[in-house]
Amino acid sequence: MAEQSEKLLRTLLGQGFEAYWVGGCVRDELIGRPVHDMDMTTSALPEEMIGLFQHTIPTGIQHGTITVMLQGHAFEVTTYRVESTYENHRRPDEVTFVKEITEDLKRRDFTMNAIARAVDGTYIDPFGGQQDTAKKIIRCVGNPLERFNEDALRMVRCVRFASVFGYSIAKDTWKGLLSQRANLEYIALERIRVELEKVISGNNPLRGLELLSRSQLLDFAKIPVLSTRFDRDIVMGINKVSLEPICLRWAVLLYAGRFTSEEAGQQLRKWTFSNQDKDEICSILRLDEQVKKRIQIQDIGIAQEERRLSWIRLVLDSGRSTALNWLKLQRTLPEHRQSFPIEWLDLFSTWEQQMNIYQLKDLGITGREVMKVNNIPAGSWLGDLLQHLLLSVAAGIVDNDKNGLIEEIKRVNMNHG
Ligand code: ATP
Ligand code: MG
After folding, report:
1. Does RNA-binding show up as a keyword for this record (predicted)?
2. Are 325 and 368 contained in the same domain?
3. Of 96, 123, 284, 389, which shows the fewest CB atoms inside 10 Å?
4. ipTM for the assembly
Protein backbone atom coordinates (compact mmCIF):
# COMPACT_ATOMS: atom_id res chain seq x y z
CA MET A 1 0.00 0.00 0.00
CA ALA A 2 2.86 2.38 0.86
CA GLU A 3 4.34 1.78 -2.56
CA GLN A 4 1.18 2.70 -4.44
CA SER A 5 0.58 5.76 -2.31
CA GLU A 6 4.11 6.94 -3.04
CA LYS A 7 3.44 6.48 -6.72
CA LEU A 8 0.34 8.61 -6.34
CA LEU A 9 2.27 11.39 -4.63
CA ARG A 10 4.98 11.26 -7.30
CA THR A 11 2.38 11.59 -10.04
CA LEU A 12 1.10 14.79 -8.42
CA LEU A 13 4.65 16.10 -7.91
CA GLY A 14 5.46 15.31 -11.54
CA GLN A 15 2.69 17.66 -12.61
CA GLY A 16 4.13 20.48 -10.53
CA PHE A 17 1.76 20.13 -7.57
CA GLU A 18 2.76 19.72 -3.96
CA ALA A 19 1.71 16.50 -2.26
CA TYR A 20 2.29 14.86 1.14
CA TRP A 21 1.18 12.10 3.44
CA VAL A 22 -0.64 13.68 6.34
CA GLY A 23 -2.58 13.08 9.55
CA GLY A 24 -3.10 9.66 11.15
CA CYS A 25 -0.71 7.72 8.91
CA VAL A 26 2.24 10.05 9.52
CA ARG A 27 1.53 10.02 13.24
CA ASP A 28 1.11 6.25 13.46
CA GLU A 29 4.30 5.63 11.52
CA LEU A 30 6.22 8.01 13.79
CA ILE A 31 5.10 6.25 16.94
CA GLY A 32 5.37 2.76 15.51
CA ARG A 33 1.71 1.84 15.38
CA PRO A 34 0.15 -0.04 12.47
CA VAL A 35 -0.90 2.37 9.72
CA HIS A 36 -4.44 1.70 8.51
CA ASP A 37 -5.10 4.34 5.89
CA MET A 38 -2.69 6.50 3.96
CA ASP A 39 -4.31 9.91 3.73
CA MET A 40 -2.69 12.47 1.51
CA THR A 41 -2.95 16.18 0.96
CA THR A 42 -2.09 18.20 -2.11
CA SER A 43 -2.14 21.65 -3.67
CA ALA A 44 -3.99 20.19 -6.67
CA LEU A 45 -7.69 21.02 -6.88
CA PRO A 46 -10.20 18.15 -6.96
CA GLU A 47 -10.92 18.59 -10.67
CA GLU A 48 -7.20 18.60 -11.40
CA MET A 49 -6.85 15.27 -9.59
CA ILE A 50 -9.78 13.83 -11.49
CA GLY A 51 -8.06 14.80 -14.73
CA LEU A 52 -4.82 13.20 -13.64
CA PHE A 53 -5.86 9.73 -12.47
CA GLN A 54 -7.78 7.10 -14.36
CA HIS A 55 -10.01 5.89 -11.53
CA THR A 56 -11.31 8.44 -9.06
CA ILE A 57 -14.38 8.61 -6.85
CA PRO A 58 -15.67 12.04 -5.79
CA THR A 59 -16.03 10.90 -2.15
CA GLY A 60 -16.28 14.34 -0.58
CA ILE A 61 -15.58 16.56 -3.51
CA GLN A 62 -17.19 19.64 -1.94
CA HIS A 63 -14.68 19.29 0.93
CA GLY A 64 -11.86 18.67 -1.50
CA THR A 65 -11.61 14.92 -0.96
CA ILE A 66 -11.19 12.54 -3.86
CA THR A 67 -10.67 8.81 -3.60
CA VAL A 68 -8.03 7.67 -6.05
CA MET A 69 -8.01 3.99 -6.96
CA LEU A 70 -4.54 2.75 -7.75
CA GLN A 71 -3.61 -0.88 -8.36
CA GLY A 72 -6.46 -2.15 -6.25
CA HIS A 73 -5.97 0.27 -3.37
CA ALA A 74 -8.14 3.25 -2.44
CA PHE A 75 -6.53 6.45 -1.23
CA GLU A 76 -8.17 9.61 0.01
CA VAL A 77 -6.47 12.71 -1.27
CA THR A 78 -7.62 16.10 -0.02
CA THR A 79 -6.85 19.51 -1.42
CA TYR A 80 -5.19 21.93 1.02
CA ARG A 81 -8.07 23.65 2.69
CA VAL A 82 -9.23 25.73 5.59
CA GLU A 83 -12.61 25.44 7.21
CA SER A 84 -15.02 28.36 7.17
CA THR A 85 -16.90 29.51 10.24
CA TYR A 86 -18.04 26.75 12.58
CA GLU A 87 -21.69 26.75 13.49
CA ASN A 88 -23.10 25.04 16.57
CA HIS A 89 -19.65 23.80 17.57
CA ARG A 90 -19.42 21.37 14.67
CA ARG A 91 -17.18 21.05 11.67
CA PRO A 92 -18.61 23.20 8.87
CA ASP A 93 -19.88 21.96 5.56
CA GLU A 94 -18.06 24.68 3.69
CA VAL A 95 -14.36 24.83 3.13
CA THR A 96 -12.00 27.08 1.25
CA PHE A 97 -9.09 25.70 -0.74
CA VAL A 98 -5.72 27.24 -0.03
CA LYS A 99 -2.26 27.18 -1.55
CA GLU A 100 -0.10 26.65 1.53
CA ILE A 101 0.39 23.34 3.32
CA THR A 102 0.91 25.14 6.63
CA GLU A 103 -2.53 26.71 6.30
CA ASP A 104 -3.98 23.22 5.94
CA LEU A 105 -2.03 21.84 8.89
CA LYS A 106 -3.26 24.70 11.06
CA ARG A 107 -6.90 23.56 10.83
CA ARG A 108 -6.05 20.12 12.23
CA ASP A 109 -6.85 19.21 15.80
CA PHE A 110 -3.68 18.11 17.57
CA THR A 111 0.00 18.70 16.92
CA MET A 112 0.61 14.97 16.36
CA ASN A 113 -2.09 15.01 13.68
CA ALA A 114 -0.72 18.11 11.97
CA ILE A 115 2.47 16.69 10.49
CA ALA A 116 3.02 16.21 6.76
CA ARG A 117 5.63 13.85 5.33
CA ALA A 118 7.17 14.29 1.90
CA VAL A 119 8.25 11.42 -0.37
CA ASP A 120 11.90 12.26 0.36
CA GLY A 121 11.23 11.55 4.05
CA THR A 122 11.31 15.15 5.26
CA TYR A 123 8.61 16.41 7.58
CA ILE A 124 6.63 19.59 7.65
CA ASP A 125 5.84 20.02 11.28
CA PRO A 126 5.17 23.64 12.15
CA PHE A 127 3.56 22.93 15.55
CA GLY A 128 6.09 20.57 17.10
CA GLY A 129 4.11 17.38 16.59
CA GLN A 130 7.22 15.20 16.50
CA GLN A 131 8.42 16.57 19.79
CA ASP A 132 5.02 16.03 21.35
CA THR A 133 4.77 12.44 20.15
CA ALA A 134 8.27 11.79 21.52
CA LYS A 135 7.07 13.12 24.87
CA LYS A 136 3.74 11.35 24.53
CA ILE A 137 1.71 14.52 24.83
CA ILE A 138 -1.53 15.49 23.15
CA ARG A 139 -1.65 19.19 22.46
CA CYS A 140 -4.08 21.30 20.45
CA VAL A 141 -2.85 23.15 17.42
CA GLY A 142 -3.23 26.80 18.42
CA ASN A 143 -5.46 28.00 21.22
CA PRO A 144 -7.21 25.00 22.83
CA LEU A 145 -10.14 27.02 24.01
CA GLU A 146 -10.85 28.23 20.48
CA ARG A 147 -10.20 24.85 18.87
CA PHE A 148 -12.56 23.00 21.20
CA ASN A 149 -15.11 25.77 20.87
CA GLU A 150 -15.04 25.45 17.06
CA ASP A 151 -15.59 21.72 17.06
CA ALA A 152 -16.66 20.00 20.26
CA LEU A 153 -15.97 16.49 18.95
CA ARG A 154 -12.25 17.25 19.26
CA MET A 155 -12.63 16.95 23.04
CA VAL A 156 -13.73 13.32 22.78
CA ARG A 157 -11.00 12.68 20.21
CA CYS A 158 -8.54 14.11 22.70
CA VAL A 159 -9.66 11.66 25.38
CA ARG A 160 -9.69 8.83 22.84
CA PHE A 161 -6.08 9.43 21.77
CA ALA A 162 -4.96 9.79 25.39
CA SER A 163 -6.60 6.50 26.23
CA VAL A 164 -5.63 4.47 23.18
CA PHE A 165 -2.03 5.76 22.98
CA GLY A 166 -1.53 6.10 26.72
CA TYR A 167 -0.56 9.76 26.24
CA SER A 168 -0.92 12.62 28.66
CA ILE A 169 -2.86 15.73 27.78
CA ALA A 170 -1.03 19.07 27.79
CA LYS A 171 -2.14 21.28 30.66
CA ASP A 172 -3.61 24.09 28.58
CA THR A 173 -5.32 21.57 26.30
CA TRP A 174 -6.98 19.95 29.31
CA LYS A 175 -7.95 23.37 30.68
CA GLY A 176 -9.44 24.31 27.31
CA LEU A 177 -11.37 21.06 27.28
CA LEU A 178 -12.83 21.68 30.72
CA SER A 179 -13.89 25.18 29.74
CA GLN A 180 -15.62 24.05 26.55
CA ARG A 181 -17.06 20.70 27.63
CA ALA A 182 -20.66 21.91 27.70
CA ASN A 183 -20.57 22.28 23.91
CA LEU A 184 -20.51 18.53 23.54
CA GLU A 185 -24.28 18.61 23.67
CA TYR A 186 -24.24 19.88 20.08
CA ILE A 187 -22.52 16.78 18.75
CA ALA A 188 -24.53 13.84 17.43
CA LEU A 189 -24.45 10.88 19.81
CA GLU A 190 -23.51 8.65 16.94
CA ARG A 191 -20.20 10.44 16.42
CA ILE A 192 -19.45 10.30 20.15
CA ARG A 193 -20.23 6.59 20.15
CA VAL A 194 -17.67 6.00 17.38
CA GLU A 195 -15.01 7.59 19.59
CA LEU A 196 -16.18 5.70 22.65
CA GLU A 197 -15.95 2.46 20.72
CA LYS A 198 -12.34 3.29 19.92
CA VAL A 199 -11.73 3.89 23.63
CA ILE A 200 -13.07 0.48 24.59
CA SER A 201 -11.31 -1.15 21.63
CA GLY A 202 -7.98 0.15 22.89
CA ASN A 203 -5.64 -1.28 25.45
CA ASN A 204 -6.55 0.95 28.32
CA PRO A 205 -10.27 1.70 28.36
CA LEU A 206 -10.09 2.49 32.04
CA ARG A 207 -7.92 5.50 31.33
CA GLY A 208 -10.43 6.77 28.77
CA LEU A 209 -13.36 6.29 31.09
CA GLU A 210 -11.54 7.98 33.92
CA LEU A 211 -10.75 10.97 31.75
CA LEU A 212 -14.37 11.09 30.62
CA SER A 213 -15.44 10.85 34.20
CA ARG A 214 -13.02 13.49 35.45
CA SER A 215 -13.96 15.91 32.71
CA GLN A 216 -17.64 14.98 32.97
CA LEU A 217 -17.69 15.14 29.19
CA LEU A 218 -20.29 12.42 28.83
CA ASP A 219 -22.63 14.23 31.19
CA PHE A 220 -22.74 17.02 28.66
CA ALA A 221 -23.38 14.58 25.85
CA LYS A 222 -26.54 13.49 27.68
CA ILE A 223 -24.99 10.10 28.44
CA PRO A 224 -24.05 10.57 32.08
CA VAL A 225 -24.21 6.89 32.90
CA LEU A 226 -20.65 5.76 32.71
CA SER A 227 -19.22 8.72 34.50
CA THR A 228 -20.11 7.50 37.96
CA ARG A 229 -21.27 3.95 38.06
CA PHE A 230 -18.69 1.74 36.46
CA ASP A 231 -16.77 -0.87 38.34
CA ARG A 232 -13.06 -0.17 37.92
CA ASP A 233 -11.97 -3.77 38.38
CA ILE A 234 -14.20 -4.91 35.58
CA VAL A 235 -13.31 -2.08 33.20
CA MET A 236 -9.68 -2.89 33.75
CA GLY A 237 -10.36 -6.32 32.27
CA ILE A 238 -12.07 -5.05 29.13
CA ASN A 239 -8.91 -5.20 27.07
CA LYS A 240 -8.70 -8.92 27.77
CA VAL A 241 -11.94 -9.42 25.86
CA SER A 242 -11.50 -10.25 22.21
CA LEU A 243 -12.31 -7.47 19.76
CA GLU A 244 -14.39 -9.84 17.69
CA PRO A 245 -17.23 -9.33 18.03
CA ILE A 246 -16.98 -5.80 19.37
CA CYS A 247 -20.41 -6.24 21.00
CA LEU A 248 -18.68 -8.21 23.72
CA ARG A 249 -16.67 -5.20 24.83
CA TRP A 250 -19.82 -3.11 24.99
CA ALA A 251 -21.46 -5.86 27.02
CA VAL A 252 -18.58 -5.84 29.50
CA LEU A 253 -18.74 -2.06 29.70
CA LEU A 254 -22.44 -2.11 30.47
CA TYR A 255 -21.88 -4.96 32.89
CA ALA A 256 -19.25 -2.85 34.61
CA GLY A 257 -21.81 -0.06 34.74
CA ARG A 258 -24.20 -2.46 36.50
CA PHE A 259 -26.86 -2.11 33.85
CA THR A 260 -29.71 -4.57 33.73
CA SER A 261 -30.39 -5.92 30.26
CA GLU A 262 -33.43 -3.67 30.07
CA GLU A 263 -31.57 -0.52 31.08
CA ALA A 264 -28.82 -1.46 28.65
CA GLY A 265 -31.38 -1.71 25.86
CA GLN A 266 -32.66 1.80 26.53
CA GLN A 267 -29.14 3.13 26.69
CA LEU A 268 -28.05 1.50 23.48
CA ARG A 269 -31.09 2.83 21.67
CA LYS A 270 -30.15 6.32 22.82
CA TRP A 271 -26.66 5.73 21.56
CA THR A 272 -28.13 4.97 18.13
CA PHE A 273 -27.03 1.35 17.99
CA SER A 274 -28.70 -0.72 15.29
CA ASN A 275 -31.37 -3.10 16.57
CA GLN A 276 -29.18 -6.03 15.67
CA ASP A 277 -26.19 -4.79 17.66
CA LYS A 278 -28.41 -3.76 20.55
CA ASP A 279 -30.02 -7.21 20.69
CA GLU A 280 -26.66 -8.94 20.48
CA ILE A 281 -25.35 -6.97 23.46
CA CYS A 282 -28.52 -7.15 25.53
CA SER A 283 -28.91 -10.89 25.01
CA ILE A 284 -25.57 -11.45 26.75
CA LEU A 285 -26.71 -9.42 29.75
CA ARG A 286 -30.09 -11.14 29.73
CA LEU A 287 -28.52 -14.57 29.74
CA ASP A 288 -26.33 -13.47 32.64
CA GLU A 289 -29.45 -12.55 34.62
CA GLN A 290 -31.11 -15.85 33.79
CA VAL A 291 -28.13 -18.02 34.61
CA LYS A 292 -27.82 -16.34 37.98
CA LYS A 293 -31.52 -16.79 38.63
CA ARG A 294 -31.87 -20.35 37.43
CA ILE A 295 -28.52 -21.88 38.31
CA GLN A 296 -27.57 -20.94 41.79
CA ILE A 297 -24.39 -21.88 43.41
CA GLN A 298 -25.92 -22.10 46.86
CA ASP A 299 -28.31 -24.86 45.77
CA ILE A 300 -26.12 -27.69 46.85
CA GLY A 301 -29.17 -29.92 47.10
CA ILE A 302 -29.70 -29.82 43.33
CA ALA A 303 -28.36 -32.73 41.38
CA GLN A 304 -25.69 -31.99 38.80
CA GLU A 305 -27.91 -33.41 36.04
CA GLU A 306 -30.64 -30.94 36.85
CA ARG A 307 -28.12 -28.14 36.65
CA ARG A 308 -26.83 -29.40 33.32
CA LEU A 309 -30.34 -29.49 31.89
CA SER A 310 -31.03 -25.94 33.12
CA TRP A 311 -27.89 -24.72 31.43
CA ILE A 312 -28.68 -26.50 28.15
CA ARG A 313 -32.19 -25.04 28.22
CA LEU A 314 -30.67 -21.56 28.60
CA VAL A 315 -28.24 -22.15 25.74
CA LEU A 316 -31.14 -23.23 23.52
CA ASP A 317 -33.24 -20.22 24.54
CA SER A 318 -30.56 -17.60 24.15
CA GLY A 319 -28.80 -19.10 21.13
CA ARG A 320 -25.34 -20.58 20.99
CA SER A 321 -23.39 -17.43 20.12
CA THR A 322 -24.91 -15.56 23.06
CA ALA A 323 -23.98 -18.42 25.35
CA LEU A 324 -20.41 -18.45 24.09
CA ASN A 325 -20.20 -14.67 24.48
CA TRP A 326 -21.52 -14.92 28.02
CA LEU A 327 -18.87 -17.50 28.88
CA LYS A 328 -16.19 -15.21 27.47
CA LEU A 329 -17.55 -12.31 29.46
CA GLN A 330 -17.54 -14.32 32.68
CA ARG A 331 -14.00 -15.50 32.06
CA THR A 332 -12.66 -11.97 31.65
CA LEU A 333 -14.06 -10.74 34.92
CA PRO A 334 -11.61 -10.46 37.79
CA GLU A 335 -11.88 -13.49 40.02
CA HIS A 336 -13.63 -11.74 42.87
CA ARG A 337 -16.29 -10.47 40.47
CA GLN A 338 -17.02 -13.78 38.79
CA SER A 339 -20.53 -15.03 39.39
CA PHE A 340 -19.39 -18.65 39.21
CA PRO A 341 -16.13 -20.31 40.16
CA ILE A 342 -13.93 -21.15 37.22
CA GLU A 343 -14.67 -24.89 37.57
CA TRP A 344 -18.30 -24.12 36.97
CA LEU A 345 -17.51 -22.12 33.87
CA ASP A 346 -15.46 -25.07 32.63
CA LEU A 347 -18.44 -27.32 33.25
CA PHE A 348 -20.76 -24.95 31.40
CA SER A 349 -18.33 -24.95 28.47
CA THR A 350 -18.09 -28.71 28.41
CA TRP A 351 -21.85 -29.17 28.58
CA GLU A 352 -22.26 -26.65 25.80
CA GLN A 353 -19.72 -28.40 23.57
CA GLN A 354 -21.39 -31.76 24.13
CA MET A 355 -24.77 -30.56 22.92
CA ASN A 356 -25.95 -32.53 19.93
CA ILE A 357 -28.08 -29.83 18.35
CA TYR A 358 -28.69 -26.18 19.04
CA GLN A 359 -31.83 -25.28 17.11
CA LEU A 360 -35.30 -26.56 16.40
CA LYS A 361 -34.60 -26.71 12.69
CA ASP A 362 -31.94 -29.35 13.28
CA LEU A 363 -34.37 -31.66 15.04
CA GLY A 364 -34.87 -34.99 13.24
CA ILE A 365 -38.61 -34.50 13.08
CA THR A 366 -40.77 -31.61 11.87
CA GLY A 367 -43.78 -30.05 13.59
CA ARG A 368 -45.96 -31.44 10.83
CA GLU A 369 -44.70 -34.95 11.47
CA VAL A 370 -45.25 -34.58 15.21
CA MET A 371 -48.86 -33.57 14.52
CA LYS A 372 -49.30 -36.65 12.36
CA VAL A 373 -48.08 -38.90 15.16
CA ASN A 374 -50.48 -37.40 17.67
CA ASN A 375 -53.24 -36.79 15.18
CA ILE A 376 -54.66 -33.77 16.99
CA PRO A 377 -54.89 -30.15 15.77
CA ALA A 378 -51.96 -27.85 16.40
CA GLY A 379 -52.06 -25.97 19.69
CA SER A 380 -49.70 -24.80 22.37
CA TRP A 381 -48.95 -28.47 23.09
CA LEU A 382 -47.01 -28.67 19.83
CA GLY A 383 -44.50 -25.98 20.73
CA ASP A 384 -44.06 -27.42 24.21
CA LEU A 385 -43.51 -30.90 22.84
CA LEU A 386 -41.00 -29.71 20.24
CA GLN A 387 -39.09 -27.84 22.94
CA HIS A 388 -39.05 -30.98 25.04
CA LEU A 389 -37.70 -33.01 22.12
CA LEU A 390 -35.10 -30.36 21.37
CA LEU A 391 -33.86 -30.38 24.95
CA SER A 392 -33.85 -34.18 25.09
CA VAL A 393 -31.79 -34.45 21.91
CA ALA A 394 -29.48 -31.56 22.81
CA ALA A 395 -28.78 -33.13 26.19
CA GLY A 396 -28.08 -36.52 24.62
CA ILE A 397 -31.03 -38.22 26.30
CA VAL A 398 -32.82 -39.09 23.05
CA ASP A 399 -31.24 -39.82 19.66
CA ASN A 400 -31.95 -37.38 16.87
CA ASP A 401 -33.57 -39.90 14.53
CA LYS A 402 -37.21 -40.03 13.58
CA ASN A 403 -38.00 -43.40 15.13
CA GLY A 404 -36.37 -42.54 18.41
CA LEU A 405 -38.21 -39.23 18.50
CA ILE A 406 -41.56 -40.89 17.77
CA GLU A 407 -40.88 -43.30 20.65
CA GLU A 408 -40.22 -40.31 22.92
CA ILE A 409 -43.48 -38.64 21.81
CA LYS A 410 -45.39 -41.82 22.67
CA ARG A 411 -43.68 -42.02 26.03
CA VAL A 412 -44.63 -38.41 26.82
CA ASN A 413 -48.22 -39.11 25.74
CA MET A 414 -48.39 -42.12 28.08
CA ASN A 415 -47.09 -40.09 31.00
CA HIS A 416 -49.69 -37.40 30.39
CA GLY A 417 -52.40 -39.97 30.19
P1 ATP B 1 -7.60 7.32 13.20
O2 ATP B 1 -6.38 6.56 13.53
O3 ATP B 1 -8.71 7.01 14.12
O4 ATP B 1 -8.01 7.25 11.76
P5 ATP B 1 -7.02 10.04 12.57
O6 ATP B 1 -6.28 11.11 13.29
O7 ATP B 1 -6.45 9.60 11.27
O8 ATP B 1 -7.21 8.84 13.55
P9 ATP B 1 -9.30 10.75 11.05
O10 ATP B 1 -10.71 10.99 11.48
O11 ATP B 1 -8.98 9.68 10.07
O12 ATP B 1 -8.48 10.54 12.38
O13 ATP B 1 -8.79 12.15 10.51
C14 ATP B 1 -7.63 12.33 9.71
C15 ATP B 1 -6.97 13.66 10.07
O16 ATP B 1 -7.90 14.73 9.87
C17 ATP B 1 -6.54 13.77 11.51
O18 ATP B 1 -5.26 13.20 11.73
C19 ATP B 1 -6.53 15.27 11.70
O20 ATP B 1 -5.38 15.84 11.13
C21 ATP B 1 -7.73 15.71 10.91
N22 ATP B 1 -8.98 15.73 11.72
C23 ATP B 1 -9.87 14.74 11.91
N24 ATP B 1 -10.89 15.13 12.67
C25 ATP B 1 -10.64 16.41 12.99
C26 ATP B 1 -11.36 17.39 13.75
N27 ATP B 1 -12.50 17.11 14.36
N28 ATP B 1 -10.80 18.62 13.83
C29 ATP B 1 -9.64 18.91 13.22
N30 ATP B 1 -8.94 18.06 12.50
C31 ATP B 1 -9.42 16.81 12.37
MG1 MG C 1 -7.42 8.16 9.87
Report:
1. yes
2. no
3. 96
4. 0.99
Alpha carbon of 343 to ligand 2 centroid (Å): 44
Question: Based on the structure, what is the number of domains in the chain?
Answer: 4
Which atom of ligand 1 lies at the shortest distance from residue 154's CA?
A: 27
Helix axes 320-332, 247-256, angle to 10 degrees: 50
In a domain, 181, yes or no: yes
CB distance 91 to ligand 1 below 6 Å: yes
Cβ-proximal residues to 94 (8 Å cutoff; 6+ apart), any chain: 83, 84
Task: Give the tens place of pLDDT for each residue, 241-278.
Answer: 877 788 999 999 899 888 999 999 998 998 889 999 99
User: How far, in Å, is the centroid of ligand 1 from the Cα of 403?
Assistant: 64
Neighbours of 141 (CB within 10 A): 21
111 lines ligand 1 (CB under 6 A): no
Q: Is 234 inside a domain boundary?
A: no
**pLDDT in the model for residue 12:** 97
The CATH code of the domain that includes 405 is 1.10.246
pTM of the model: 0.86
Q: Which pLDDT belongs to residue 228?
A: 58
Same domain for 148 and 225, yes or no, is yes
Domain range spanning residue 109? 1-135
Query: Which 8-state DSSP code applies to residue 295?
Result: S
Distance from residue 5's CA to the centre of ligand 2 (Å): 15
Q: By C-alpha distance, which of 118, 199, 128 is closest to 158? A: 199
